[in-house]
């Protein structure tokens, strides 16, 4: 059973799209790829609480890392599954460098060309508005 899930996103305002993934029995953490190394986990938690209220209490852990820090983080901290935004085109490079297994990854992206590209490589990819479908497909009850 998939329990420990990491969402990797680069916009705090897009956390709302992942809400269907936050179900009882799942420990969902959020990693924000940030451009400002002074933006902390506390800032992220505060922003999610301000933007989405009760959703913030469902997040197990908040992490913030720069692009340069992410690979080290992913190599040292394991999750059962990863739901990843396109990250402005950086996502494919990230998973290749971190060596994340294909079967443990699904992409949630609003960019159709990105979704088509990763699907052609055998990855699961969904529209941002289709997190409920991702949840049904990847985390069957």
How confident overall, as mean pLDDT?
A: 92
Give the N-to-C terminal Cα separation: 9 Å
CATH superfamily: NAD(P)-binding Rossmann-like Domain
Level-1 CATH class name: Alpha Beta
- Low-confidence segments, ≥5 residues, pLDDT <50? none
Order of helices and strands: EEHEHEHEHEH
- The number of distinct structural domains comes to 1
Radius of gyration: 14 Å
Written account of the structure:
The chain has helices spanning 41-52, 67-76, 91-98, 112-120, 131-138, and strands spanning 4-9, 27-33, 59-65, 81-84, 105-108, 124-126. It has five helices and six strands. It is globular, with a radius of gyration of 14 Å. Helix content is 33%, strand content 22%. The protein has 141 residues and is an alpha/beta fold. It has one domain: NAD(P)-binding Rossmann-like Domain (Rossmann fold, 3-Layer(aba) Sandwich). Strand 2, helix 1 (41-52) and strand 3 (59-65) form a beta-alpha-beta unit.
What is the secondary structure topology, with strand pairs?
Blueprint lengths: L3 E6 L17 E7 L7 H12 L6 E7 L1 H10 L4 E4 L6 H8 L6 E4 L3 H9 L3 E3 L4 H8 L3
Which structural traits does this protein have?
141 residues; alpha/beta; Rossmann fold; 22% strand; globular
């Amino acid at each position: 059973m998939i329990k420990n899930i990491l969402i990797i996103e680069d916009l705090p305002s897009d956390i709302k799209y992942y809400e269907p993934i936050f179900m009882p029995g799942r420990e969902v953490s959020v990693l924000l790829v940030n451009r400002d190394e002074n933006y902390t986990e506390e800032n992220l938690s505060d922003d999610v609480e301000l933007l989405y209220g009760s959703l913030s209490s469902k997040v197990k852990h908040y992490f913030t890392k720069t692009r340069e820090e992410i690979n080290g983080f992913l190599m040292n901290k394991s999750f059962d599954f990863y739901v990843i935004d396109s990250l402005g085109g950086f996502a494919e490079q990230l998973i290749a460098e971190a060596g994340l297994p294909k079967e443990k990854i699904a992409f949630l992206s609003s960019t159709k060309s990105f979704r088509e590209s990763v699907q052609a490589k055998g990855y699961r990819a969904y529209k941002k508005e289709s997190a409920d479908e991702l949840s049904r497909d990847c985390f069957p009850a």
